[in-house]
């Protein structure tokens, strides 16, 4: 259990995929408009990462080294297809608002990165812990970003139609820039600088 | 004709791949330190986007749709792009060594570039015809190239700029991306 816990905790802070390793910015910037999208995206990434890590660590001894990358990509693409079909069937509104970013999980560096760097070298239990840790780290990072963007960009924060709170002045005149693409760059840039300042991340 | 022009402009500047759609951010932050590299990377991505759009359109319309297996498109597209990149690399190596030396090291990186898979998925989603897909891929590629070149010029200045320590590198590049994105809003009124 100690080893499981260690692998799990590592992905959340020490090697947070977004703020520390700086991987997977494409989906993070694009879908962090609202908490709904952020939750949907992180669930998608978590399912794909868990599935691909399990399969890849299970077959790691039979995969010839020369063709491992194409094999990993096909496994990941299969899981992304499954996630796509499930989202399309059960949460069509989320599927529409995530748009092409849901299928683009295939080329998300986090997933291929974990497959190559971890799951292809480690037993299944550690790989599951690693996948869960990285997924939770990604989800937390995405939730922080989308919370800030939604709060400043729309003046209120709501999850799946349930309104959490509305800010007094911003509720009437929100800073729309924050839910537009440039706002994503601004929020992530400042958060990265803040985490470096706090010493959570190593400076270059 | 007007429709094609508006697709081109929309893809190139209004919904720019990097600044508005966030596709292909890795080269935007990684490669764009030198003008020459930015140019080569942008050209390589444009070329692969163009070839991938044509190939996936043909596959989509003559294999996936007739056999009603469109739901397999993610797996098929990623395999097609990966093998295309290999073929293009071999072809350029055989025919034009100067071009290979310029683009060579960037080609393998393109397989996992979101922009290439992105354009094929956008084409499929929007239901573009072959001609529209070609125009969309060229527009997207040229917009990508444009932003990489602009960014490489800014990066050369940023390297010597006296930014606060925690802002150096990625954070300041993100803020530059924000300013560029705001500037590109000006193109919004074009169509």
Layout of secondary structure:
The complex is a heterodimer of chains A (204) and B (191).
Chain A: H1 2-10, H2 25-31, H3 35-58, H4 68-90, H5 92-98, H6 109-119, H7 124-154, E1 156-159, E2 162-166, H8 181-197
Antiparallel strand pairs in A: 1-2
Helix pairs in contact in A: 1-7, 3-4, 3-6, 3-7, 4-5, 4-6, 6-7
Chain B: H1 2-14, H2 25-30, H3 35-64, H4 73-95, H5 97-103, H6 107-110, H7 114-126, H8 130-160, H9 170-184
Helix pairs in contact in B: 1-8, 3-4, 3-7, 3-8, 4-5, 4-7, 7-8, 8-9
Structure commentary:
The complex is a heterodimer of chains A (204) and B (191). With 204 residues, chain A is mainly alpha-helical. Chain A has one domain. Chain A is built from 8 helices and 2 strands, in the order αααααααββα. In chain A, strand 1 and strand 2 form a beta hairpin. Chain B is an all-alpha fold and 191 residues long. Chain B has one domain. Helices cover 74% and strands 0% of the residues of chain B. Chain B has 9 helices and no strands. Chains A and B meet through helix 2, helix 4 and helix 8 of A and helix 2, helix 4, helix 7 and helix 9 of B.
């Amino acid at each position: 259990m100690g080893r499981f816990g260690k692998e799990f905790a590592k992905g959340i802070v020490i090697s947070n995929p977004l703020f520390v390793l700086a991987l997977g910015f494409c989906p993070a910037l694009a879908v962090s408009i609202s908490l709904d999208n952020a939750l949907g995206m992180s669930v998608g990434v978590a399912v794909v990462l868990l599935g691909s890590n399990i399969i890849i660590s299970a077959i790691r001894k039979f995969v010839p080294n020369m063709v491992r990358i194409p094999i990993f990509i096909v496994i990941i693409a299969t899981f992304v297809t499954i996630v796509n079909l499930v989202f399309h069937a059960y949460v069509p509104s989320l599927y529409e608002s995530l748009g092409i970013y849901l299928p683009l999980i295939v080329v998300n560096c986090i997933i291929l990165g974990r497959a190559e760097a971890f799951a292809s070298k480690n037993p299944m239990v550690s790989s599951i812990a690693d996948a869960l840790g990285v997924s939770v780290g990604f989800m937390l990072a995405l939730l922080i970003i989308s919370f800030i963007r939604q709060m400043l960009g729309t003046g209120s924060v709501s999850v799946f139609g349930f309104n959490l709170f509305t800010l007094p002045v911003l509720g009437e005149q929100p800073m729309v820039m924050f839910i537009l693409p440039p706002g994503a760059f601004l929020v992530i840039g400042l958060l990265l600088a803040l985490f470096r300042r706090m010493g959570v991340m190593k400076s270059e | 004709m007007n429709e094609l022009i508006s697709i081109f402009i929309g893809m190139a500047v209004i919904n720019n791949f990097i600044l508005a759609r966030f596709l292909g951010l890795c080269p935007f932050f990684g490669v764009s330190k030198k003008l020459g590299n930015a140019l080569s990377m942008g050209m390589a991505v444009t070329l692969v986007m163009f070839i991938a759009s044509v190939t996936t359109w043909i596959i989509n319309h003559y294999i996936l749709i007739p056999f009603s297996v469109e739901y397999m498109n993610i797996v098929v597209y990623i395999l097609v792009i990966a093998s295309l990149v290999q073929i293009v690399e071999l072809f350029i190596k055989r025919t034009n060594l100067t071009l290979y030396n310029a683009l060579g090291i960037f080609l393998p990186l393109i397989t996992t570039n979101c922009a290439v898979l992105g354009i094929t998925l956008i084409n499929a989603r929007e239901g573009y015809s072959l001609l529209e897909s070609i125009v969309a891929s060229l527009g997207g590629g040229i917009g990508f190239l444009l932003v990489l070149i602009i960014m490489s010029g800014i990066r050369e200045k940023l390297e010597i700029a006296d930014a606060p320590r925690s802002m150096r590198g990625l954070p300041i590049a993100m803020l530059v991306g924000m300013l560029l994105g705001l500037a590109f809003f000006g193109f919004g009124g074009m169509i």
